[in-house]
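Q: Structure for this?
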Amino acid sequence: MLKIGIVGGTGYTGVELLRILSQHPQVSIEAITSRKEAGMDVAQLFPSLRGRIELKFSDPAEANLDKCDVVFFATPNGIAMKQVPSLLDAGVRIIDLAADFRIKDIAVWEKWYGMSHACPELVAEAVYGLPEINRDRIKTARLIANPGCYPTAVQLGFLPLVESGAVDLDHLVADAKSGVSGAGRNAEIHTLFAEAADNFRAYGVSGHRHLPEIRQGLSQAAKHPIGLTFVPHLTPMIRGIHATLYAKLLKEVDLQALYENRYVNEPFVDVLPAGSHPETRSVRGSNLCRIAVHRPQGGDTAVILSVTDNLVKGAAGQAVQNMNLMFGLPETLAITHVPLFP
Ligand SMILES: NC(=O)c1ccc[n+]([C@@H]2O[C@H](COP(=O)([O-])OP(=O)(O)OC[C@H]3O[C@@H](n4cnc5c(N)ncnc54)[C@H](OP(=O)(O)O)[C@@H]3O)[C@@H](O)[C@H]2O)c1
């Protein structure tokens, strides 16, 4: 049994990790931290886990994380990087759900995240945890930078196109929408019911932190720097990401065949029949990314629709997929949930 520690067990990605890992046959959860709720039964805060998780939250300083085989950080940006060096020295493998190790260029990371990096020497070693690109490197990694929620939906949607060389790489457009759980469980004005319900708005048009992450991933896949306009939106949903992606075609390509071939062996990417309109509720609670390709009016614009659950394939489910790969377990173990409907 793998011994698991979770730092940040009271947030949305933390409780999603608990939901998934409590059904995983090869793990034993040893520590779940929260500074605010230390000493409280996990099931008292999250009745959904009653009968599944018997632990109490513990303070991160007293959690014996160095005795674990793997520690997940489900914490805000800038927390994991302070603890990762000593945990790695103790032989613990790390999956960081935050952004501390996602951007290879330290100056770019420091600019977008507004802080100095505490262990820049480890960033080069960290493996970006998108299995559809880095599966082999994930298997041997000590440190995984789990991708962001928008970057997962946008990169999986664009990957076959940018790898194919069939599109104008300078002018990609990603118009993406997220449910409010993407903002975490902290009380903030813009996620109050009266602010977010019955409302729809863009944000971060001039620049969002996920832009450099997506640009880095797609540039590597294209073997060429890409240009991307990325506009995120907040929708009155709890879970879900819907990305509508646009690219100008430079040569003839059978989009459906391109996507079906690229993802034929991917357990968590489902290419829908041509002309489909995937819905966020078709992936809710699951580790799936569903994708549909379009070419409106037979013109030269490819339109790709990509949907995920931000807390599963966009965070905790993908983190468990990475853990399975790192420890030689079946990649799909404990993450084959059928989406919830309605
Ligand atoms: N929400 C999403 O859809 C999503 C998707 C992909 C990635 N992510 C990323 O995943 C991370 C967690 O997101 P979330 O939405 O779950 O956040 P969240 O709901 O705000 O939860 C944050 C968790 O971190 C703990 N924490 C905060 N400061 C800490 C510190 N200094 N030391 C130790 N623990 C601390 C909190 O508990 P205490 O304060 O009680 O310790 C809480 O359990 C973030 O970096 C986020 O960007 C989120």
